[in-house]
Amino acid sequence: MIGQTISHYKILAKLGGGGMGVVYKAEDAKLKRTVALKFLPPDLTRDDEAKERFMHEAQAASALDHPNICTIHEIDETEDGRIFICMAYYEGETLKQHVASGKLQVADVIDVAIQIAQGLAKAHEHGITHRDIKPANVMITKDGVVKIVDFGLAKLAGQEGLTKTGMTVGTVAYMSPQQAQGIEVNHRTDIWSLGVVLYEMITGQLPFRGEYEHAVIYSIMNEAPKPLAEWRAEVPAKLQMIVEKAVAKNLGERYQQTNEMLSDLRALQKELESGLAQAAGVEKRPVSSIAVLPFVNMSADPENEYFSDGLAEDLINALTKIKGFHVAARTSAFSFKGEKQDIREIGRKLNVETVLEGSVRKVDDRLRITAQLINVSDGYHLWSERYDRVMADVFAIQDEITLAIVNALKVELLGEEKAAIAKRYTDNLEAYNLYLKGRYFWNKRFEGGLQKAMEYFKQAIEKEPTYALAYSGLADCLGILGFYSYLPPQEAFPKAKALAQKALEIDDSLAEAHTSMAGMRWVYDWNWLEAEQEFKRALELKPSYAMARWWYSYFLMTMGRTDESLAEIKQAQEFDPLSLVINTMAGWMLYFAHQYDQAIAQCQKALEMDPNFGMAHFVLGWAYEQEGMYEEAIAVMQKAKNIVGLPLIGPFLAHVYAISGKTDEAQKLIDQLNELLSKQQYVSPCHMAVIHAGLGEQDQAFEWLQKAYKERAGWLIMLKVEPRFDSLRSDPRYTELLKKVGLEK
Fold first, then answer.
1. What residues make up the domain containing 691?
2. For residue 235, how far is the Cα from the chain centroid?
3. Model pLDDT, residue 413
4. 243-252, 324-333, 471-480, 646-655: range with lowest mean pLDDT
5. What is the pLDDT of residue 50?
6. By the 8 A CB rule, do 659 and 694 touch?
7. Does residue 97 sit in the same domain as residue 175?
8. Three-state SS across 118-187?
């Protein structure tokens, strides 16, 4: 074809070719510019439906305007029916050639990965998935600018199956497990492929290999890649984490959005530039991270479960008092309860270097406690011990185990840290046992756990009137019951505030108590300044306290400080990566930030962890609603109503019915809610206002909002950011209400 003229393009030279077509350098005779023409193989476009699908997707890709995406000028067809794409021509080489030229510097690898991620993020934002990210489809110009090419071609080649035309071992090697199985894929398949490319740039090797296609697929589905440090000792540990998260086989554990991976890559780039990045292959001492798994209850009585859980939780609390020591949060560590998983896999998921596991056998007042500290990297024990004591020695045993861990990990303690570890909040064994039972049920939240937790906290206080933790626990129970409208605010919030105040009077150094007080200053007092001071004090005392972080994130969002809120919730996720509540709260914050696609993905991630988690269902429904996906919103809100109940979810479901034109269904729910109100069952007036806003009944909506103001309903804190009230914002009454609550001056 060299020397021929196709349309108004003169073919100058052949640049390359493969299963997806042949590329030529050409001159555009009309515009006098050099371009690249890619001619597609006839077998890819012989089918009219496939051709139409390709043209549609290529048109969408051509609309992408981003410096890291190859510009598509036009798509045309020759007289003999061959389709070709006219693209911008770049002087440079493919990433495949770049990798083959020799070992790349880590900084250069990160720069290339960031540019690829930037281009993919732009495409994903427009609903376009590449499906064939590999070094051959990435150009690097002479100026070092990365350009992604061949959008849409992978779908054209039918890569949903393994026997379609155009399949090559090279392409299979970059497939995600879902793509390899023929499962419908989305943008997360590109994230996987970028992880594979990143691994290859660092090591010069593919992470998943085999002599033939099905051997490669078996490796993708079943094998873990060799750690980067085994290829190059100087590779930063954070880069290993990024690669592992990108190529996580389970979709829920993979990066959910390309922007998340991009954020981590940029953070690593800054660490490299500042010289703070820690090499994965460098032995690190002292070890600075640990997960304490729930101790196994070996007692004959299953009722002793609370004690074995409580012992592990107390050890977590003690270890968090060591500055610079990363301790996996209780929720994430306890998610492995009852599961048989390799310690190394647990360590990887929790991003810790060591794991403590143990067991408790309790017979009358006799205890046998065993504990083992395990190094995640090789699975070997660093320390183990058995304690045969009486119940009265339980506090001393906790101190011994904590100090033994510190010694084994060669952590140097400051004087105040030693004192903090040894600090006891009560010497009363009965009160301690009752408190452990309270926390056991507190962690069950809406499974009837809060009412039981309250009873045990009250009993603990009766046994030990100066037990600050028990006061804080009771305050948290009442605060949550009031906030989620299980109790009227005037019944729940003043009591919760008084209990938090009592806890602080007993012990002003208790992060839990400052968090409890922050919540009341925020949702009840509407005292934003003091609420933030309390949150900051709690995090100063206990930086790893994930609950304080996610409530602080929520606080920041209600203040309209979106970027700060999203940064804070991300930190909460890092401390407690497997927490259902925190993962759902991350979706909730994205909802308030109007990032609905990301909110949907985040809630789906939480539901992959537990399909029956009601909170994730209703936040997912809110995001669907804002995207105009009303049928999907109704379906998940129905599930949420069945799990959580009518008083909380009914108003939000009615709102979806209202704005989707199903006013009869909305009215039925209003009637049911009014019936509850007639029986003196509490339904938040904020929630009733949501329904009438959806129906366009502004006067009724404001009547309910005024009632909410008089009651000091907790959900009024969302007035500034709640999308469902957008239809009311232009009304002067809304501005006046914002001022009365203190959210506007």
1. 645-745
2. 25
3. 62
4. 324-333
5. 59
6. yes
7. yes
8. HHHHHHHHCCCCCCCCCHHHEEEECCCCEEECCCCHHHHCCCCCCCCCCCCHHHHCCCCHHHHCCCCCCC
- Over residues 382-395, the mean pLDDT reads 84
Question: The sheet that has 138-141: what strands, in order across it?
Answer: 92-94, 138-141, 146-148
Model confidence pLDDT, tens digit, residues 63-87 = 778 999 988 888 888 888 788 888 8
Structural domain ending residue among the three candidates 274, 302, 337:
274
- 232 and 351 fall within a common domain: no
User: Is residue 353 pLDDT above 90, yes or no?
Assistant: no
Token couple for 84: 């070709």
Q: What is the pLDDT of residues 181-191, one digit of tens each?
A: 888 788 999 99
% of the chain surpassing 70 pLDDT: 91
Give the strand pairing for 9-18 and 21-28: antiparallel
* pLDDT of the residue at 455: 95
Per-residue pLDDT averaged across 227-231, rounded?
Answer: 85
**Amino acid identity for residue 340 in this structure:** K
**Quick check: 75 and 58 in contact, CB under 8 A?**
yes
Within 8 A by CB and 6+ apart from 505, the residues are: none
Going by C-alpha positions, the residue among 224, 263, 221 that lies closest to residue 347 is 224
Query: What's 46's domain CATH number?
Result: 3.30.200.20
The pLDDT of residue 424: 77
CB 720 within 8 A of CB 560: yes
- Distance in angstroms (rounded) separating the CA atoms of residues 128 and 120: 9
Claim to verify: residue 373 and residue 265 sit in the same structural domain: no
Let me know: does 197 contact 130? Beta carbons within 8 Å: no
Q: Domain boundary residue among 390, 424, 458? A: 424
State which amino acid sits at residue 403: L
Q: Residue with structure tokens 């606080």? A: 555
Among 66, 67, 84, smallest CA distance to 75 is for: 84
Q: Which residues of 143-173 are buried (b: 16+ CB within 10 A; e: fewer)?
A: eeebbbbbbbbbbbbebeeeeeebbeeebbb
Reported confidence tier of residue 38, pLDDT bands at 50, 70, 90:
confident
Summarize pLDDT for 245-277 with one digit per residue, the tens: 999 998 888 899 999 999 889 988 887 876 655
List helix spans (H) across 484-613: 489-506, 511-523, 528-541, 546-558, 562-575, 580-592, 596-609
Number of domains in the chain: 4
HSE-up of 548 (CA within 13 Å, CB side)?
25
Q: Are residues 315 and 415 in the same domain?
A: yes
Residues 203 and 135 in one domain: yes
Q: What is the mean pLDDT of the chain?
A: 86
